[in-house]
Write a structure and sequence with these properties.
heterodimer, A: 2 domains, rod-shaped, B: Phenylalanyl-tRNA Synthetase, Chain B, domain 3, seven-stranded mixed sheet, about 25% strand
């Protein structure tokens, strides 16, 4: 074995023995560094004859290539081993629990959700949304709506009043959103197609009544709308809102001062362990009142009842929300109990749409 | 309004079954609320004969009876405790499975003191057909053994209760209900007419009406020589069935007339009436002991009937005890009058009396029936009690004005969307008592006196529609037409909607709280003005319209805390009231955070959770503003404290959010401890409030296209600076000064560290900022960047007195 072969063999042995990248680097420096053993051999080439240089040069360079290759290979091995060793020490406890993201924790109140749902449905039918103040005049809340003087609703035991003004008039908290209908009729020319959602107030407090509640009323005024249209709209709404293919509705004659004829509407349902199923069963559940707008109301709003006609309806938003979502206790709606809101509330991204479904 | 089936059949000739009649009532607007069909319930009870009754071996008071129940089988053994259970007695028997209403039990086979008993022998009280609970029912010996008792005895009549709408006074009497059913083809109305009864002497009592607006008509008659006592069985049963207590024949007749004919009457014992009768306003200080045993204090708003003694009766509401009829009455004055509806309603409410008379008079009784009603009552009195009638005394108007409506036949199609041929419509109206003249296109319709609710064309449409059936009105599609599909929400409505979703997306939970709050709480938030205080609040702590959503939210958060949920983030978007005019009502978006309910999430976490801070609510407020489309860069933060700043916020940890010096959009920060104490809440609580209406409306967009995207060609450069500044220097001032370093090229400045403590003077702090410099036209050289950096340092030093940290 020549010296070169011995040297090469020694270096390769050292490379194989290097246990980490630092040791390997030391081997490289001792072989290929400026003062390295192979570098020293290469330096001797300059003093050789051309022939000798040619043959020796080739041999030395072969040895150098072998060493370089071995270094690279060994470096890869050591680098991977080092990475594996590092990764082996780098562990996390992947079972640590996540925190709810805010979007998961946040809730929309069932009343707001219901509000959005019904707005979506009626908007599709071409209804605009009108709103008005909670504090109203007796004129808009009662007189223009054909409530006679002395009607019990005008008394202190039914309606919240404010103290009389100097001129004797007294404001009140609206008992329905019908004053918004009045305001709409006084400010717009027919044809009119609006819904009026809003907060309403009556002096009533028991298991099924709260002193504040929410209503959505609808109003259509034009030259051709009649009871048949009213029935169709309410039927379409109920199917869409309760998300059922069919629903049986019963329209019963009734009485309200502001409509003539007046109807009350029941929907057929079955009660099953607190859950209400629509479109089946034996029970009739009253959900809304409606009728053709009373000629006296039209006149009070400067609309000629012999030229224009229309219909109106009103229903409790709280009530339909409770029916749809199986909410038992009305009073919980206004308690702000986080447990209740978490349970009955909706996620912020559950935005009702007709394309994607109201509640799915 | 309650009545029984057989009572209805006194007025209606019909073979229709109860169920069909009830359905029809509902569908013509007389909504059946409840049917109590005890006959159905008690059907299993049959007539039975006690074959033998022997002493129970283990109980002194019990007997073991062998009973023939008439089914042809072996006698049934029944243990019975009734003292009258004896051999041969014909009585009534309930087999196992029978519901016994008086005891609210369903019978089963049982063992009583060791002896098997297969059913029950029953007393009248146990099935609520009488008050008799002294023993089991005793029937005649020839009663058919095995027959259904209720059928045989014809004792129990289904009771129908209808939920009457306030317009239908005519249906407060069975006769009127029968008329409606007859109109709806459910049978034929029995209306034999009422014959006047000729008086045999002049009525000795005269009547004076002082105020005809309170009493449009008054009819009176004396019947002399009556014999008052218990009314006959049929009458007592009628009254008992609908929940009235039989008293004596004369009083029972008035109650009967009230329900039968919607004609309330009053009877005075003539011997207890002194002098003539006067209808007048009560006088201050007058009192009346009424028939309900209560004494009422009267005032001049109340209409009374008085004699020489004083007040004898509350007109149209309730009679007085002193002149009432009892078993000793021999001469009776029968009153049939008309009263002012509004006055009756007000008096009834004022005195708290809900009588059957008030119920009818406040709806307005049939004026034309005042005298016929008196005739009918006289007839009944004579039939049941004998006696000799006087002439009638009639004061005022006994007949109403005629009402005739010009009715175009097209009106039905116009309003209801259906067509009913004139003959059919005429038939319906005539059966209801209307008179129809002419053949169209416009007919004249006369309204019957009892239909005080019918005034115009629409009312006639309703009459026809309800009798034909609303279900006959076909559903008619209502197309939206070619109206453009524009958004229907107003700016405020869509801002409200977005604000809610934005806050919920920040982990907050939406609450809906009361519009009214306690006055001290309202005052704390700038409310409590006299014009916003309810005159009749439902409770002392729900007395004033809320000037802010925060008192309600803080109370709700505290309630959650009291239930053991400390970490709560609640928000509400709703109405607040700064005055009583429509323009004083605003929509606020507000929220509170307490405990570990921070923007990062709820509760503590291994990731390191901080308690909710003022900055969480600052972010909430900005989320609302951004969702509402406000330009957030244009907003200013004005630190709290000072005279005009809300006292409910911590002066050092709160701020106003403003757009310009005048328009305060809202506030955020930590609640003032004094405010929390006044609200009864534990702190700390973080809160914000944004008045959504105050956010300026953006310019209407002319195009939906977004502006051109400007992508710089050159790499941005970021430089960090740390400044030592006085503690009260605002970070916003440092940021603004840094931006002023080069208004064109400095595109972003962020604060990435604020440090106070070791190594820094106690009255100083270190604020570190990162400045982004965005070259526009060419890459910047190091010298150019250094020059910008030097200008930034110079600006910050000039504006804040800070020095670059070494």
């Amino acid at each position: 074995m020549s010296d070169l072969e011995t040297l090469q063999s020694q270096i390769l042995t050292d490379i194989a023995a290097a246990s980490d990248e630092a040791a390997l680097e030391a081997v490289r420096v001792s072989a290929l560094g400026k003062k390295g053993s192979i570098s020293a051999l290469l330096a001797t080439l300059g003093k050789m004859s051309p022939d000798e240089r040619k043959s020796e040069g080739a041999r030395i360079n072969l040895a150098k290539d072998a060493v370089t290759q071995a270094l690279t290979a060994r470096r890869d091995v050591l680098k991977n081993a080092a990475l594996d060793a590092r990764l082996a020490s780098e562990t996390i406890d992947v079972t640590l629990p996540l925190r709810d993201t805010p979007a998961d924790a946040g809730r929309i109140h069932p009343l707001s959700q219901t509000w959005d749902e019904l707005t979506t449905i009626f908007a599709d039918m071409g209804f605009a949304v009108a709103e008005g103040p909670d504090i109203e005049t007796d004129d808009y809340n009662f007189t223009k709506l054909n409530f006679p003087e002395g009607h019990p609703a005008r008394e202190m035991h039914d309606t919240f009043f404010f103290n009389p003004k100097e001129d004797g008039s007294r404001l009140l908290l609206r008992t329905h959103t019908s004053p918004v209908q009045v305001r709409t009729m006084l400010s717009q020319k027919p044809p009119i197609r609006v819904i009026c959602p809003g907060r309403t107030y009556r002096i009533d407090s028991d298991a099924t009544h709260t002193p504040q509640f929410h209503q959505v009323e609808g109003l259509v005024i034009d030259k051709g709308s009649h009871l048949g249209h009213l029935k169709w709209i309410l039927h379409e709404f109920c199917k869409a809102f309760f998300e059922v293919d069919h629903i049986n509705m019963r329209f019963r004659p009734s009485f309200f001062p502001f409509t003539e004829p007046s109807l009350e509407v029941d929907i057929q349902c079955r009660r099953d362990k607190g859950e209400i199923r629509f479109g089946e069963g034996e029970d009739w559940l009253e959900i809304l009142g409606c009728g053709m707008v009373h000629p006296n109301v039209l006149r009070a709003c400067d609309i000629d009842p012999d030229v224009y006609q229309g219909f109106a309806w009103g229903m409790g938003i709280d009530r339909i929300a409770m029916l749809k979502y199986g909410i038992a206790d009305l009073r919980q709606l206004f308690e702000g109990d986080a447990r209740w809101l978490n349970h009955y509330g909706f996620r912020p991204l559950d935005i009702p749409t007709l394309a994607g479904g109201l509640s799915s | 309004m309650k009545f029984t089936l057989s009572w209805l059949k006194d007025h209606l000739e019909t073979d229709e079954p109860l169920e069909k009649l009830a359905d029809k009532l509902t569908m013509i607007g007389l909504e059946v609320e409840h049917i109590e069909n005890r006959a159905e319930q008690l059907k299993p009870i049959r007539i039975a004969r006690v074959i033998s009754a022997v002493q129970h071996p283990n109980a002194d008071r019990l007997r073991v009876c062998m009973v023939d129940i008439g089914d042809g089988g072996a006698p049934v053994q029944v243990v019975c405790g009734a003292p009258n259970a004896r051999d041969g007695l014909v009585t009534i028997f309930g087999p196992p499975g029978t519901f016994i209403p008086g005891k609210n039990i369903t019978l089963s086979v049982g063992s009583i003191r060791g002896v098997e008993s297969r059913g029950m022998l029953i007393s009248g009280a146990e099935i609520e057909i009488s008050d008799d609970h002294s023993g089991i029912v005793e029937l005649p010996a020839d009663a058919p053994i095995g027959a259904s008792y209720v059928e045989w005895a014809k004792l129990i009549d289904p009771v129908i209760e209808i939920n009457l709408t306030p317009n239908r006074q005519d249906a407060t009497g069975v006769h009127g209900i029968a008329r409606d059913l007859a109109a709806a083809d459910m049978g034929k109305l029995k209306d034999p007419g009422i014959k006047p009864i000729k008086g045999e002497f002049p009525c000795p009592v005269q009547v004076t009406v002082e105020d005809a607006t309170l009493c449009p008509g008054f009819a009176l008659r004396l019947v002399r020589g009556v014999k008052n006592g218990p009314s006959p069985e049929w009458l007592q049963q009628r009254l008992t069935a609908i929940g009235l207590r039989p008293i004596n024949a004369l009083v029972d007749i008035t109650n009967f007339m009230t329900y039968d004919r919607a004609r309330p009457l009053h009877v005075f014992d003539a011997k207890k009436v002194k002098g003539n009768l006067t209808v007048r306003h009560a006088r201050d200080g007058e009192e009346l002991l009424a028939l309900d045993g209560k004494t009422y204090k009267l005032d001049p708003s109340i209409c009374v009937i008085a004699d020489d003694h004083g007040v004898e009766s509350l007109a149209g509401i309730m009679g007085g005890e002193a002149s009432g009829c009892d078993e000793t009455t021999t001469d009776v004055l029968i009153e049939s009058a008309l009263w002012n509806e509004i006055n009756i309603a007000q008096t009834g409410r004022k005195l708290g009396i809900n009588s059957d008379a008030r119920y009818r008079f406040e709806r307005g009784v049939d004026p034309a029936f005042m005298v016929p009603g008196l005739e009918l009552a006289t007839k009944m009195v004579m039939e049941l009690c004998g006696g000799t009638p006087s002439d009638n005394v009639v004061v005022g108007k006994a007949f109403p004005d005629d009402r005739v409506i010009d009715y175009p036949l097209s009106e039905l199609k116009r309003l209801a969307g259906i067509e009913v041929p004139l003959p059919e419509a005429r038939g319906i109206l005539q059966r209801l008592g209307f008179m129809v003249a002419g053949n169209g296109p416009v007919v004249k319709i006369a309204v019957p006196s009892w239909r005080t609710d019918v005034h115009g064309k629409a009312d006639i449409v309703e009459e026809i529609v309800r009798i034909v059936g609303v279900d006959k009105v076909p559903m008619t599609p209502f197309p939206r037409g070619d109206n453009p599909r524009k958004p229907v929400l107003t700016t405020l409505q869509s801002r409200t909607r977005r604000a809610k979703r934005a806050l919920a997306a920040r982990g907050m939970v939406e609450a809906v709280t009361w519009s009214f709050i306690a006055k001290p709480h309202a005052e704390l938030f700038g409310g409590g003005q006299p014009e916003l205080a309810l005159a009749n609040p439902i409770a002392a702590d729900l007395s004033d319209m809320r000037p802010s959503l925060l008192p309600g939210l803080i109370a709700a958060a505290q309630a959650n805390h009291d239930r053991g949920s400390d970490d709560v983030a609640l928000f509400e978007v709703g109405q607040i009231f700064k005055g009583d005019r429509p323009q004083d009502q605003f929509t606020a978006a507000s929220g509170v955070r307490r405990g570990f309910a921070s923007s990062q999430g709820l509760g503590r976490s291994w990731t390191g959770a901080a308690p909710a801070s003022a900055f969480d609510t600052k972010a909430d407020a900005f989320a609302v503003l951004a969702a509402a489309g406000a330009s957030v860069q244009a907003l200013q933060i004005a630190p709290g404290g000072g005279n005009n700043f809300p006292a409910w916020l911590h002066p050092g940890r709160s701020a106003a959010i403003q757009m310009g010096p005048q328009n305060v959009l809202g506030y955020f920060g930590e609640l003032h401890p004094r405010a929390l104490e006044a609200l009864g809440a534990d702190g700390p609580v973080m809160a914000f409030e944004v008045i959504v209406d105050r956010i300026p409306e953006g310019k209407a967009k002319t195009t939906r296209a977004k502006p051109q995207l400007d992508l710089p060609a050159f790499h941005p450069v970021e430089r960090d600076f740390a400044f030592i500044v006085a503690r009260d220097v605002k970070a916003a001032d440092i940021v603004r000064a840094a931006q002023a370093g080069d208004k064109k090229l400095v595109t972003n400045v962020t604060v990435f560290d604020v440090y106070e403590g070791k190594g820094i003077d106690p009255d100083k702090k270190s604020v570190a900022i990162a400045v982004t410099i965005q070259p526009r036209e060419k890459t910047l050289t190091d010298q150019e960047i250094d020059a910008i950096a030097a200008k930034i340092v110079a600006e910050v030093t000039k504006k804040t007195g800070g020095t670059l940290r070494g």
